[in-house]
């Protein structure tokens, strides 16, 4: 975390362990800042954690096109004890109609996720070629898993032509959540659990 937190343009970081998989999402103001931070983090991982990671990571760099964050200070005051996430990585995604799809997600899927209750944050980003990541963060595991059903139903109804295959899913309790707006990258999970 200190490497990420000290990096120029740091916006946020999520770490999601799920059995033998691990997903980390880093958010920065610019692509250049993200690349520099990724390089620094990669060096740290190679020097200190390589023995714990049997496979090299898949690095996905992209442009954030949807970003929703509940007023986190309000959520913290509600005494939430943990956060759960569902990350979906879509391969071979046809980005041709992405602008219209962003509008559909903002008008239909995001309100559905909000209405389901417990939504902390939602974001999507794409690599400009053919991959897209969607991350939904909820205050309960049931909400996070239900978001997979909401997303699958939405994709089937509205995005079937753009999404030729099922996404890779990583689901579980977040290990780390850090947002620059709140304490320059404090781990919100540890703050919320007391």
Topology overview:
Layout: H1 2-6, E1 10-18, E2 21-28, H2 31-48, E3 63-69, H3 72-77, E4 84-90, H4 98-116, E5 119-126, E6 132-138, H5 141-159, E7 168-173, E8 176-179, H6 188-192
Antiparallel strand pairs: 1-2, 1-8, 3-5, 4-6, 4-7, 5-6
Q: pLDDT average, as an integer?
A: 80
Provide the number of structural domains: 1
CATH architecture: 2-Layer Sandwich
Count, helices: 6
Q: Which structural class fits the helix and strand makeup?
A: alpha+beta
Find the count of extended strands (DSSP E, 2+ residues): 8
Subunit organisation of the chains: single chain
Q: What's the shape? A: globular
Alpha-carbon Rg, integer: 16 Å
Brief summary:
By secondary structure, the chain is of the alpha+beta class. It contains six helices and eight strands, in the order αββαβαβαββαββα. It has a five-stranded antiparallel β-sheet with strand order 3-5-6-4-7, covered by helices on one side.
Structure characteristics:
37% helix; 194 residues; globular; 6 helices; alpha+beta; three-stranded antiparallel β-sheet; disordered C terminus; Alpha-Beta Plaits
Describe this structure in words.
By secondary structure, the protein is α+β, with helices and mostly antiparallel strands. The protein has one domain: Alpha-Beta Plaits, CATH 3.30.70.100. The chain has 6 helices and 8 strands; from the N terminus they run H-E-E-H-E-H-E-H-E-E-H-E-E-H. The strands form 2 sheets. The protein has a 5-stranded antiparallel β-sheet with strand order 3-5-6-4-7, with helices on one face. The chain has a 3-stranded antiparallel β-sheet with strand order 2-1-8. A hairpin with a 2-residue loop joins strand 1 (10-18) and strand 2 (21-28). Helix 4 runs antiparallel to helix 5 (141-159). The longest helix has 19 residues, at 98-116. The radius of gyration is 16 Å and the shape is globular. It starts with a helix and ends with a helix.
């Amino acid at each position: 975390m200190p490497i990420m937190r000290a990096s120029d343009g740091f916006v946020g970081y999520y770490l999601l362990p799920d059995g033998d998989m691990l997903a980390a999402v880093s958010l920065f103001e610019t692509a250049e800042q993200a690349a520099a931070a990724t390089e620094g983090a990669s060096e740290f991982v190679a020097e200190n954690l390589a023995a714990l990671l049997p496979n090299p990571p898949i690095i996905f760099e992209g442009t954030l096109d949807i970003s929703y964050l509940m007023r986190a200070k309000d959520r913290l005051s509600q005494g939430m004890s943990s956060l759960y996430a569902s990350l979906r990585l879509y391969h071979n995604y046809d980005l041709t109609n992405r602008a219209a799809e962003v509008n559909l997600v903002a008008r239909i899927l995001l309100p559905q996720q909000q209405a389901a209750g417990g939504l902390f944050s939602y974001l999507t980003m794409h690599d400009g070629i053919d991959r897209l990541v969607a991350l939904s963060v909820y205050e309960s595991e049931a909400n996070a898993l239900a978001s997979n059903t909401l997303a699958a139903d939405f994709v089937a109804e509205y995005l079937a032509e753009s999404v030729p295959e099922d996404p890779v899913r990583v689901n579980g309790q977040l290990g780390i959540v850090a947002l620059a707006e709140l304490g320059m990258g404090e781990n919100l999970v540890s703050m919320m659990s007391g």
